[in-house]
Each structure stands twice: as structure tokens, then as C-alpha cells.
Amino acid sequence: MIGSLTTDKEFPRDIDVLVTVSDDCDLAPLAQFGRQLSGHMNGHQAGADVFLASEDGDYLGRTCPWRDCGPDYRTSCDAMHCGVRHYLHDDFNAIRLKERVIAQPPVLLWPDLAAAQKVPPDVYELLIDELAKDVKR
């Protein structure tokens, strides 16, 4: 987990998740999760993004926001290589994650649960502590 939710911001504006994927990973389920999370957060006047990194630590982009992905579906798509890898939205002109964020995200949810930096108490209590209970079961 990265972004404003992991800071002391009183009103974080979104939920940002970073997922490391293999070259052959099917991005469709991640894109669906991203759309569902974004839809849920829109109801709270907030947003959500699923950012993607390679196993080598390179930033790949975000998951595609469209249910149907490919160059024949959306002429307004701003992905640099729309449709080359389905559900990869590589809009580097809009956003690019820093290498240090990819190498050491503020909150690691998998494979181990850990906070790489001091996170706000509510995030620690409501997310990390609760997830840790599930892991111990």
C-alpha cells in the first residue's frame, strides 16, 4: 500500500495499491479489483488506483480503468501502448512511481505484513493489526 493513506493526512484522497506482477500475469482480475475499489471509493468522494511493478522493480503503469480493454474500444485511452498487454494502462505522461516507493512501499501486505515506515495509528490499528489477526489464525 502506498500513497496518502499511509501518511498523516487528515483526509486521504484515495487508496493506492502497488502490486508486483510477473510478465505472464493475467491483469484482468487486478483491473476488475481496481475498478470495483475505485467505484466504492467514488461513493466517498475519493479514488483508488492499482499500480503495477515488474519483478525486477520497474514501474509498469496502472491497471486499465475500462471493463473492455484494447485499442478498438476507447479512442480516448491515454495509455502509451493501449492493448499491447491487456489491462495495462501505461500512462507515463500522467504518473510514474519513484523507484524508492517500488523498492520499499510504506505498507507491505504480502507476502509478509509489515510497515516500512511509521504509519498513522488508525491505519495500523484498523488494517495491519486486523490483518495480522487473520494471518495468525
How would you characterize this protein structure?
By secondary structure, the protein is α+β, with helices and mostly antiparallel strands. The chain has one domain (4-107). It has three helices and six strands; from the N terminus they run βαβββαββα. The protein has helices at residues 28-42, 99-103, 121-136; strands at residues 14-21, 47-54, 59-63, 88-89, 107-108, 114-115. It has a four-stranded mixed beta sheet with strand order 1-2-3-4, with helices on one face. Strands 5-6 form a two-stranded antiparallel sheet. Strand 2 (47-54) and strand 3 (59-63) form a beta hairpin. The chain is globular and about 45 Å long.
N-to-C series of helices and strands: EHEEEHEEH
Distance between the termini: 23 Å
**Rg over CA atoms:** 16 Å
Largest sheet: 4 strands, mixed
Number of helices: 3
What is the mean pLDDT? Answer: 89
Which secondary structure elements does this structure contain, and how are they paired or packed?
Layout (H helix, E strand, L loop, with lengths): L13 E8 L6 H15 L4 E8 L4 E5 L24 E2 L9 H5 L3 E2 L5 E2 L5 H16 L1
Parallel strand pairs: 1-2
Antiparallel strand pairs: 2-3, 3-4, 5-6
Offer a few descriptive terms.
137 residues; alpha+beta; globular
Structure at a glance:
The chain is of the alpha+beta class and 137 residues long. 26% of the residues lie in helices and 20% in strands.
